[in-house]
Amino acid sequence: MLSRIWSGFFFVAFISALIQWLVFDQVLVFEQIVNAIFDMSKVTVDIAIGLIGVLSFWLGMMKIAEHAGIIDKLAQIISPLFTRLMPGVPKGHPAIGSMTMNLSANFLGLDNAATPLGLKAMQDLQSLNTNKNTATNAQILFLVLNTSSVTLFPITVFVYRAQQGALNPTDVFVPILLATTASTLAGLFAVAFVQKIKLYQQTVMLYLSAGIALIGGVAAYFATLSADLLAQQSSLMGNLLIFSTLISFIFFALKRQVNVYDSFIEGAKQGFETSIKLIPYLLAMLCAIGVFRASGALDLIVEAIRTVVTYFNADTRFVDALPTAFMNPLSGSGARAMMIETMSTHGADSFAGRLASIVQGSTETTFYVLAVYFGSVGIRYSRHALACGLIADFAGISAAIGVCYWFFG
Length: 409
Prior knowledge:
Layout: H1 2-22, H2 29-68, H3 70-85, H4 94-107, H5 111-126, H6 137-148, H7 155-163, H8 173-195, H9 202-222, H10 227-255, H11 260-294, H12 297-311, H13 322-327, H14 332-346, H15 351-362, H16 366-375, H17 385-408
Helix pairs in contact: 1-11, 2-5, 2-10, 2-11, 3-4, 4-5, 5-6, 6-8, 6-16, 6-17, 8-15, 8-17, 11-16, 14-15, 15-17
């Protein structure tokens, strides 16, 4: 599946480039494609190098937490849920604690912490994998939950909206929460359908109900705050929680007479090795996406949709935000650029500007996460991971369009 899609990016880009050249007289299109390959090759190395420090640090801290027994405690608390969603993961396995911490970091919008924690969780899950180059059911579910995970504080979206002159940068807070919740549930349901997981079990329903109640309660509270207070309190909560977590790791490790320095070094070495291992996988995916974008294929798809919508006399305002929606599963930086361009062209408080912001906050970058997480453990056959991830993306984008019309239509 992944091999065909990767090849498809290049073939579609070539066909699109021919159309741009022969029909629209874009004589520089092939130059732009070749430049995109070189640019993405450089970006790949920049990303990998940028990951070395943060990944090494977080894996070092995770090793301290592991030796302190904290990961085991987390695993015991959340085991009843994960053992039902992931029957292949034994009760109390370290992977459960790692996954819990990763999903918690995603929930709080702590991207820098979420990625290394997610890679650690994927490595823990790989230790249970008997076929090392093929993704297990548990790894697929974890990846899909990552690409669609609920994000409570999309601070970067608020910052970009403020920079673009939005009167109330956080007026998309609740719509983003609704859209990202829809994408998470859709991803979970898609994987459950394929893997025949019974979600109506009492334990699963109890955890899901508690999670939805927590999200709803926090959303209701933060929806009452002003833009300045929301940004201030969300930033304070996130940073306080993350540093308090690190302090607790060290405290409990020292209490159990763990050599925290040696433990940190042991984990940090794994972070360096993992970062280097990621480069070929990132290079393959980012170059394919860069070629696809530079060929103008995305613009052709958007204009084709606009033509169809216009033919049926439907409202076309949402079409102007579709570049962000289509780019979001492919490239995080590309989606951000599309969002800013949409707000700059149509206005931050326009329908398209708000919709682009909601879409940007609704899901993660599916292809990037797939390349990084599976690449870190050498998985080549992703099975149904990509399809389920894209279903979550589609649900998130559809929900974003729906709630944007509901709140701002």
